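User: Can you predict the 3D structure for this chain?
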Amino acid sequence: MNQPVQKIAGNRLRVRACGVLADEEGIILVNHRGLYQHSFWAPPGGGINFGESVTKCLVREFKEETSLDIEIEEFLFSTEFIRFPIHALELFFKVHKIGGVLKSGNDPEFKDVQGYSLDVKKMTWPEIELLKKEELHGSFARVKSGKNILDLRGYLIL
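Assistant: Here is the predicted structure, written as structure tokens:
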């Protein structure tokens, strides 16, 4: 993880809201380029601001990163990731699209980090199977196949 990103996201607990927008063909994922030496694909989402509800955060983050308007269907699962200097608690929700056109957005939190960018894509399930484990959010390691991500429930330690 690069130094500027550590400064922004490290040494504190981050509580994040994340959305799973998936169908029989694939899932919307965001590639956070510049966090690591490799690609890192994860469902859209981000940090909850003090005083902001989880649902408002998720709608905002999804719009910022994907340009899509979404509606939340149901809570799926939570994850906790602790690897110094990162500590994140993430709440995952099943969502569906109500408007917008899929295109790469931005992450205001990392806008000044050199080399950081977002790519957004509806990845097919076969494309996901070709990615290396470290290139995918840790929740995908908990399922046999990427398409089973909607079956995850409960609290998962990554």
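The helical segments are 3-9, 54-66, 125-130. The CA atoms of residues 75 and 93 lie 4 Å apart.
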